[in-house]
TrEMBL record:
Residues 21-90 form the HD domain. This is HD domain-containing protein. The lineage of its organism: Bacteria, Pseudomonadati, Bacteroidota, Cytophagia, Cytophagales. InterPro entries: HD_domain. It comes from the Bacteria.
Amino acid sequence: MTREDARALLFEMTKGDSLRRHARTVELVMEAYATKLGEDADEWAIAGLLHDADYEAWPSEHPNRIVALLSERGLPKIAHAISAHYTHWGVPYDTLLDKGLIACDEITGFIVACCQVRPDGIESLEVKSVMKKLKQKSFAATVDREEVNKGMELFGVTPEEHIAFIIEVLKQNRDELKV
């Protein structure tokens, strides 16, 4: 599956701009990490792009629909990473791809939320501001802070380095993402 195929699949399954943007932000962060770590950038990007593709249309079946579809298309590594991208589902997360997706999903969405409440968006966003917002339970209350921390732990990154990395990726893509 090419990235163009993955994008077409996302747009077929997901109609809302917000979830499409989340998928794109996670795609970009995953691609950047794959490049940094010497992993398959397309594989990591596609996992990021499609991780929530079935959520809007079939929330009670998420992520089973997209996992089944990717398995049928011969993409078992991506399918498994998506099936394991929330630690409470009880699916083992053994590969770096699995751990990377867990580490990047919730926190990337959280950082975008931080940008949305700032007058200049991501321009002056600092790690310490994100860390402070993480401690505010009322801010982006649906973000599972336990999952954010578990993801970073599994991926072997500190909160400071991980948040800084994501901020930099989002800054590089600020015009497209409108953050």
